[in-house]
TrEMBL record:
One of its GO terms (cellular component) is membrane. InterPro entries: HemY_N, Mms48, TPR-like_helical_dom_sf. Residues 33-143 form the HemY N-terminal domain. Residues 505-537 are annotated as: Disordered. It comes from Jannaschia donghaensis. The chain crosses the membrane at residues 43-63. Keywords: Membrane, Transmembrane, Transmembrane helix. This is Tetratricopeptide repeat protein.
Amino acid sequence: MLWSLFKILLFVALVAALAYGVQWVLSLSADATIRFNDVEYVLPPLVLIVGALALMLVLWVIFKLTGLLIATLKFINGDDTALGAYFDRNRERKGYAALSDSLIALASGEAREAAAKAQKAEKYLNRPEVTTLIVAQASEAAGETARATEAWKTLVTHDRTRFVGVRGLMRQKLEAGDTETAMKLAEKAFALKPRHVETQDTLLRLQARDENWDGARRVLSAKLKSGDMPKDVYKRREAVLSLADARNQLADGNADKARAEILEANRLSPELVPAAVMAARLHIESGEKRRAAKVLKAARLKTPHPDLAAAFAEIEPGETPDARIKRFQPFLKVAPQASESKLLETELYLAAEDFPGARRALGKLYETEPTTRSLTLMAAIERGEGGSEAVVRGWLAKAISAPRGPQWICDTCGTVHADWLPVCTSCEAFDSLSWTAAPVGATPASLPSEMMPLLMGPTRADVPEAEVPEVLAEDIALVEDTKPQTPRPHDDSVVVVELDEKVGDAPAMSVGDAPGVSIDDVGTTRDVGSTATPPRN
Ligand SMILES: [Zn+2]
């Protein structure tokens, strides 16, 4: 508004100045005198000024005509392209002007304008790799998918722009959710430029999603060759691929091939927990107990995972709980400071019904790291030592709302997975799962759903209502009518504590979920003995 007003004022001022100037020139009495061939011309000042302007115009025309004349002469002398080049220069200038307008429009977010200018530039310049590219990008930004597709397809037909065109089409297909076509285009793009990081990643993701492990291996080695992947990451990913393939082979019944893949995965990445567990089981099967123990200890060094302890327990399925505590000592020493070691030792003592030992092993972990597992173990210790029902239930109530501790969590999207997988089920990222605790605040405050049917025990008359924390009362009500279930095997993240009416009985600890094992007063199942029933004292 202000700007328009200013422009009007400026225009008025200019007109006024011009009128004043003309009047001033007219008022000058001195005339210019030009002598030419002994004839004197007397020119008034105004005529002189107009004459000067006219002379400049004539000179410009002569300049232009000379250019054309030179081009024509060259053409007559046999230079066929001279005339064309003269006119081309003009077209080129207009073309580049339109092109720069188009780029500026694209950069300032005016996609439609950019596309229009790029098409104009295309008419003047015969440079489709530049102009079509801008048309494609501008159309995409403006949401004109059909026009963008046309442009990408045009780019595919030129040698220089083939990769850009394929990549553009691939991204369009990915966005549209057509992963099958996207995969084919990604393979084409990969063939054109094997070192292109984005293409490698996209292809790897799509192949992992489709469980095309062989294809993924090719991409992975290309990534290593292009130097944008550290050797250790490469080895780990190779291991993940081998393991993923092994799972497929197992599902298809190819035990021998699966075996080779598992051992290869463990060789490539000794710290990969699922590979170590599977490899250890293979060694146990073939009677190589020492090798199994070695493999499990090597993995435990990096990640003290309960599955490793479970497999370590499987090495000697028939041992007594006391013998197991003794045999586990070197295994515990692999990561003596890890919370997992304290929890594991506590569970071993509980299995041996050595409750003071269990309390010693747990230490202050229920305070420093109050997780569902550590607090449930505390409840089991209290129960074992004959603590009151109120105290035991108090610990259980805390356990319900406590963080879950480490889980398989996707580094990319944060999704929690019950078991290790090569590809995240949520974001389809490859090799993105780490055994780690969920960030604070991400843990649901409610009882994990899988724990619901496992936490048994009706509300008791001998426990005053006020002493039953509200959250527990609700959960008990939820599960009260549920038939007691056998704890699920291989549930590594849930410690199951079952309570029944036999308060005051000698508490017993059960490590194992094999049929025939009775869960007496407090039963805790861990993977530590999930495949075996140790003799009970
Ligand atoms: Zn994810």
